Amino acid sequence: MRRIRFVFLLLASVLLVPVVLLVRSALLYAEHDERAQLRTVAERAGDELERELSRIVKEEEARPFGHYRFYYVPPDVAGGRYGLSRSPLAGSPAAPYVIGHFEIQPDGSIGSPMLPREVERARERGDWRPEDAAPAERRLAAVRRIVESNLEAQVPGTARVTTAPGESGSEAFVGAPPPGQTAPLAEAEPAEAARPTPEAYRALLALNRSADARGQVNPLQLQLKISRLEDGSGLRVTALGQDSLEPLAESALRFVAPSRQETWFAPESLLRDEVPVGRRVDVYPMSGQLAGPEHLILLRAAMSQGRWYWQGAVLSVPALSTWLDASVFGESDLLQRDYLVRDGPQPPPLTGAVVPFGHRFARPFDSLAVRIGVPAMTTQSSTYVKLLALLVLFAGSAGLYALYRMVEVTVGFAERRSNFAAAVTHELKTPLTAIRMYAEMLRDGMVDSEAKRQAYAETITTESERLSRLIDNVLEFSRLEQGSRDLRLEAGPLGPVVTEAARILEGHARRAGFELRLEIEEGLPPVRYDRDALVQVVFNLVDNALKYARDASERSVVLRCRRAQEGVELSVRDRGPGVPADQLSRIFEAFYRGGDELTRTTKGTGIGLALVRGLAQRMGAAVSGRNAPDGGFEVALSFPASA
After folding, report:
1. I want to staple 637 with a disulfide (CB 3.0 to 4.6 A). Which of 328, 531, 570, 617 is the partner?
2. Sign of torsion, CA 251 255 260 266?
3. pLDDT digits (tens, 9 = 90+) for 496-526
């Protein structure tokens, strides 16, 4: 059995490893599928947020150059006082997340469309009221404070790089040009003069490999940064490229195609009753710059007549987050959202059974990110995979166990049959040897005493009876296994049959040194039994008791019939050592014998109690065995009373 157990353990390991790997792969795939579905939900939410931010950028980039003044001239008006219009950006911003718009002039000063430059003329035209001044001035002061405090936090002449490592910086100076650098070309000069020379063009391409198909730097790859000049005479705006940390000597924007060109009419000319002159303006894309954890600056460049203007808006990050939530998610709380600012404080962990996903917004909002918590869910495929995995594991384990038990039982029965054959051979050989020896002595006249001849004859008779009982047991057990044993059940009292069997066994017990005591209650109800089968049952129980209690200090066997519940109980009890507790459940199995075959001293074939159980069940009786509390072993047959 040890070899069989080892083989089955090896087989189970060989089968279990690929099954476990297969189940694990299936579960990982199901988990990946679940996470992919959750990621799809998070990406969809991120895309909706990006769409709203893109709309904000498009609206800001689409604003004409003149909107950043209190007054502007619509593009379709050639001139005249009545062509002057108030900017849509004048007054308080319409969007709740916008603190205010501003414009950095070429001289480095900061203006805003929220306040008119000619206050008196604006009042005369009815476009400005005294009560509008205080809120506009507060907003403008907040805008200036945010922009200037952000500038002063930077090292003069440098810019904070917020894009990926390896980007290059090219500076465009506002105000007085640095020593050794000429002023930008005016618009009056030929347009070709504003284009880069072939050498500079090739140098720019060498520094920026992200050029588009036309050989121009992609404007969306630029990042504009503002800082002050060392002498405080103006502001410096840095345009970051991608491929080098060394800045170009000229403005990077001179090598970049503007997003659009438009014509601008100075509103001051109309206010002075002069005919305005149209000027071409190159407008560049928006860029984003983080101003602390709560503010974001949208900034774009514009060039007119060789002079640079910087226009943009200051946004409140908390207000923008609230507005995005309301615009995209409404009142839904299915997804948890946390908006993060680069280098800002980290939000607390998400609560509940959610899976977090991060999404960083595209430029110019690349300094902002959102963490989206999607409720964890179990998909139908995952449930099927888990159920199938459990089924495969259960079926495989049950199949291996059933196969092991079948082999174990088969091998066990084979071993017991082998032991039974050896035991029967020994049991047959012993009485036959005794019978032959005593018979030969009597035949050859070797016994002179009549008493000895009588003793030898009695021994031959006893061994013959023992041999007959053994043969009868084997034949009876064989008929029971084949199902050919027919019993003739008759209703009657057990007492007379048990008494007769005890009388026959009394001499056998006495010769073995035992006292056979018979205890039969009076008035027992009749039961159904087969007389020959009942006698054989009693013979086997008494013989088994004599065999296993031979070393007991009290050498007695009690054969008892008594009333029990609604029937009669027939029991045989000895005073021997009893049966080990772990073997009680197996003593009625065929060919089972307790202990080791190599060290066993008790004779027997292992079919006695199995035959008792088989005959008792055919007669409708229940068989049980137990160790008595005060010592010894007892086998009881419970017969139901006959109706």
Report:
1. 570
2. positive
3. 999 999 998 888 888 888 999 999 998 899 9
Query: Contact 101/87 with Cβ under 8 angstroms?
Result: no
The reported pLDDT for the residue numbered 11 is: 78
Dist CA 368 CA 342 (whole Å):
6
Residue type, 157: G
| Backbone torsions φ then ψ of 196, nearest 5 degrees | -70, 150
Angle between helix axes 450-482 and 495-511 (nearest 10 degrees) is 130
CB 110 within 8 A of CB 102: yes
Contact 143, 102 (CB under 8 A): yes
3-class SS of residue 355:
strand
- Please return the burial class of 446, using the count of CB atoms within 10 Å of its CB with bins 0-12, 13-18 and 19+: exposed
Pairing verdict, β 556-564 and 515-520? parallel
- Select from 404, 193, 418 the least CA-distant residue to 306: 193
Q: Pick the residue with more confidence: 546 or 463?
A: 546
The structure tokens 């888990």 sit at 386
Nearest to 457 by CA among 471, 447, 469: 447
List the chain domain ranges: 2-52+332-375, 63-317, 486-640
CA atoms within 13 A on the CB side of 282: 20
Please answer whether residues 282 and 302 qualify as being in contact, where contact means their C-beta atoms are separated by less than 8 angstroms.
yes
Q: What is the per-residue pLDDT across 235-251, written as a single tens digit (0 to 9) for each?
A: 555 555 443 333 333 34
Model confidence at 55, pLDDT cuts 50, 70, 90, reads very high
- Omega within 30 of 0 (cis) for the link into 348: no
**Looking at this protein, which amino acid is placed at residue 239?**
A
